[in-house]
Write a structure and sequence with these properties.
- By secondary structure, this protein is mainly β.
- Helices cover about 0% and strands about 60% of the residues.
- The protein contains no helices and eleven strands.
- The strands form two sheets. Strands 2, 4, 5, 6, 9, 10 and 11 form a seven-stranded mixed sheet that branches.
- It starts with a strand and ends with a strand.
- The mean pLDDT is about 95.
Length: about 120
């Protein structure tokens, strides 16, 4: 079993910064892609940014130039600068890879961390 534990959410004023962290642990052989998604009230969960094992990244258009995703083995970070009220959402960490036992594919989600940006 693979678990993701997130931290770093909170309340910040518009224009401020937050850094989200997510650590994967458990029955892991390899992790392919790690990413961050967000879900605002009444809306679907959407991709914010993701990073592959090779370091390739992609971002949703609205966060380009403001957010930076980075990775250190089984940990992934999201540095969020110049935050806007519309960035308010629950942010979820996601990872996929191969388990150490039987080399089975897995995809897991974190429990979510709330980011609130006040105007």
């Amino acid at each position: 079993q693979v678990q993701l534990v997130e931290s770093g959410g909170g309340l910040v004023q518009a224009g401020g910064s937050l850094r989200l962290s997510c650590a994967a642990s458990g029955n892991i052989f390899t992790i392919n892609t790690m990413g961050w998604y967000r879900q605002a009230p009444g809306k679907q969960r959407d991709l914010v940014a993701r990073i592959t094992s090779g370091g390739s990244t992609n971002y949703t258009e609205s966060v380009k130039g403001r957010f930076t995703i980075s990775r250190d083995n089984a940990k992934v970070y999201l540095q969020m600068n110049s935050l806007r009220p519309e960035d308010t959402a629950v942010y979820y960490c996601n990872a996929d890879g191969t388990s150490a036992l039987f080399h089975r594919y897995f995809e897991v989600w974190g429990q979510g961390t709330l980011v609130t940006v006040s105007s």
